[in-house]
Write a structure and sequence with these properties.
By secondary structure, the chain is mostly beta strands. About 5% of the residues lie in helices and about 45% in strands. It contains two helices and 14 strands.
């Protein structure tokens, strides 16, 4: 993910898609169950974190809309996904019941970030205004482009894509849930 790690430079981290049922998250999403793997209850999990190696250090993962604790029997990585075996999930049918569910860890267990870095869930929902005070709406999503993240803002002008770079994002106050942006010429026309 692009972006420097200095104060004032917005830089967001994966592994933070907010569970849609939580306004003040207690958990951080680190994956999503894609499907069963094999017949012994193993789960094929899409990795949604910048720190997949840390998954192996968790003895319990929380799965589902009402995060339910599942003791971990084993985790291994294969072709860009995590293969996770949970205690009590012993056959393909049990694994199938978890298809599509979020895999989460407690927020306290998340990797601490440098100053000027943010998890996606911290930015989603933030009110966005221009340096002139024009309200643009709220951040609905964070898109990773490789070079830098892009904030998808929904508001009075419809959908506006804001590049998460220092020249554009002038201020991000998470406590006030407010972002001030300097709009480059031509960004809002169209």
């Amino acid at each position: 993910m692009g972006g420097a790690r200095r104060p004032g430079k917005p830089h967001t981290k994966r592994g933070s898609a907010p569970p849609p049922w939580s306004s003040e998250p207690r958990f951080v999403v680190v994956g999503r169950v894609l499907r069963p793997h094999g017949v012994r209850g193993e789960l094929r999990v899409e990795i949604l974190t910048d720190y997949p190696e840390r998954l192996s250090s968790h003895h319990t993962l929380y799965i589902g809309p009402e995060p339910t604790p599942y003791p971990v029997e084993g985790i291994r990585f294969h072709r860009g996904v995590a293969l996770i075996k949970l205690v009590g999930c012993d056959d393909r049918n049990a694994a199938e019941e978890l298809r599509g569910q979020w895999v989460q860890i407690p927020i306290e267990a998340a990797v601490p970030l440098e100053e000027g870095e943010y998890y996606h869930f911290q930015v989603v929902g933030v009110e966005v205004v221009t340096t002139e005070g024009e309200p643009l709406g709220r951040v609905a999503e964070v898109i990773e482009t490789g070079a830098n993240d892009v904030y998808v803002v929904h508001g009075p002008r419809g959908e506006v894509l804001i590049p998460a770079i220092e020249d554009v994002v002038r201020e991000l106050d998470l406590e006030a849930r407010r972002m001030v942006v300097e709009i480059p010429p031509g960004l809002l026309e169209g």
